[in-house]
Write a structure and sequence with these properties.
It is a single chain. This protein is an alpha/beta fold and 398 residues long. 39% of the residues lie in helices and 17% in strands. The protein has helices spanning 9-13, 30-43, 53-73, 86-101, 116-129, 148-151, 174-183, 270-286, 288-307, 334-343, 356-362, 378-395; strands spanning 18-19, 80-83, 107-110, 132-135, 138-139, 142-143, 156-162, 188-191, 210-214, 225-229, 246-250, 253-256, 312-314, 324-329, 346-347, 349-351, 367-371. The strands form 5 sheets. A 7-stranded mixed β-sheet has the order 2-10-9-8-7-3-4, with helices on both faces. The mean pLDDT is 93.
Length: 398
């Protein structure tokens, strides 16, 4: 695999930096930055209804981006709605589904490894509607998916499941999960924010209601997300209203646009959406399976070397995890490890990673998270390990 860092201006402008914070934010290829710059400098106009050339061009490019997203994820363009990030998409899905099904005494299923953005919208709705959250039992540090049937009952009205943990890298068996909830006709929302950058998710094969993801975790700008309506779509719920969401308004009320696009209220971040489409084209041109294999190997080196380092506890990610590794040390706090590594040019993240229940369940206060991307190499892995072992030697027990 060639060194992909040459495609990313960040590394030219920050020589020597080892970027291992990809679960939080990824760098952008030059062609993506160029595409966004070209839109802003040459094509900038609000989409929809404008009859002058720039507006027509902007609208066409925005809809082309929708088609590009659909091709990449194996769905139809009509299934794709653009949001401002995955959190926005997850809130939209919760409002749409929850508005239909939540009632007093109902329950919603989630795993204990969810990002807060997955469960907080449901917790808020549950409090208002007299419902409760139920969490899938854990086994050996990962959700015991086969136990879903033990906590589902006639009052289960929805489920929200991460496709991949942003803490441990656990990969959810989506086929089994989708089938389990589909057989019971329980609406399912998938958070693909961490999995989508690392593996192909074929929406056409999965029986979900909504799938959510962010562009900035897939080598694109911040400010764009995606909500994909699945095979069991519930497309006519209301999330927010405004320009672009209605077909007719009169003194007595309004008629909504049908379909998932009806959540696209107001002026979108067209520049970020169009740049995201360019990112997906870049990943497709790259032969993404090879790049994904390379980043997994980098993470595997990190995981195994950390396990073989005294004074370090690596959290279990299950079988064939995503390239995300979380650990704690006996010799320094997570924030101190991240700060000292950062001073040496290695970017990692420390804290609870917006996954409070996960950390409480796993019995850790905070962790250092290392997450590989397509531009990381084995050299990055070994440099990280060298620096961590230096810290252990300097601050560990003698």
């Amino acid at each position: 695999m060639c060194d992909l860092r040459q495609d990313f201006p960040f590394f030219e402008n920050n020589p020597g930096v080892v970027w291992l914070d990809n679960a939080s934010n990824t760098q952008m290829p030059a062609r993506v930055i160029d595409r966004m710059t070209r839109f802003l400098s040459q094509e900038n106009a609000n989409i929809g209804r404008g009859e002058y050339p720039a507006a027509i061009k902007a609208t066409l490019e925005y809809e082309k981006a929708r088609e590009t997203v659909a091709r990449f994820f194996g769905c139809e363009a009509g299934d794709v709605a653009f949001t401002f990030n995955a959190t926005d998409a997850l809130n939209a899905a919760a409002e749409i589904v929850g508005g239909e099904v939540l009632r007093d005494g109902a329950n919603v299923i989630a795993s204990r490894l969810e990002h807060n953005s997955c469960i907080l919208p449901w917790m808020r709705l549950a409090e208002k509607g007299g419902a409760e959250m139920r969490f899938i039992p854990m086994k050996n540090g990962v959700p015991d998916i086969e136990k879903i049937g033990d906590i589902v009952d006639k009052n289960t009205v929805a489920a929200v499941i991460t496709a991949g943990s942003n803490v441990t890298g656990w990969r959810a068996p989506l086929d089994f999960i989708c089938r389990t909830f589909a057989e019971r006709d329980i609406p399912l929302i998938i958070d693909a924010s961490q999995a989508a950058p690392h593996e192909f998710i074929d929406a056409s094969r999965l029986a979900f209601d909504y799938m959510c993801l962010s562009a900035h975790k897939m080598y694109a700008p911040t400010g764009a997300g995606v909500l994909i309506a699945g095979k069991k779509e519930r497309r006519d719920g209301i999330y927010r209203v405004g320009g672009g969401t209605v077909a007719e308004v009169n003194e007595k009320g309004f008629t909504r646009i049908t379909g998932v696009r009806g959540i696209e209220a107001g002026t979108p971040n067209a520049a970020a959406v169009i740049a995201f489409a360019e990112t997906l084209n870049y990943l497709s041109d790259l032969g993404i399976n090879n790049a994904w294999e390379s980043e997994r190997k980098t993470a595997d080196i990190i995981r195994e070397e950390l396990k073989n380092t005294d004074g370090i506890n690596v959290l279990c990610g299950g079988e064939e995890p995503l390239p995300v590794v979380a650990f704690e040390t006996e010799f320094l706090s997570a924030s101190d490890v991240a700060r000292l590594l950062g001073a040496e040019g290695i970017a990692v993240r420390a804290g609870k990673h917006c996954a409070h229940i996960a950390h409480k369940t796993l019995g850790v206060e905070a962790t250092v998270r290392v997450s590989a991307g397509i531009y990381n190499t084995s050299d990055d892995a070994y440099e990280l390990i060298e620096k961590i072992r230096f810290l252990r030697g300097k601050y560990g027990k003698r």
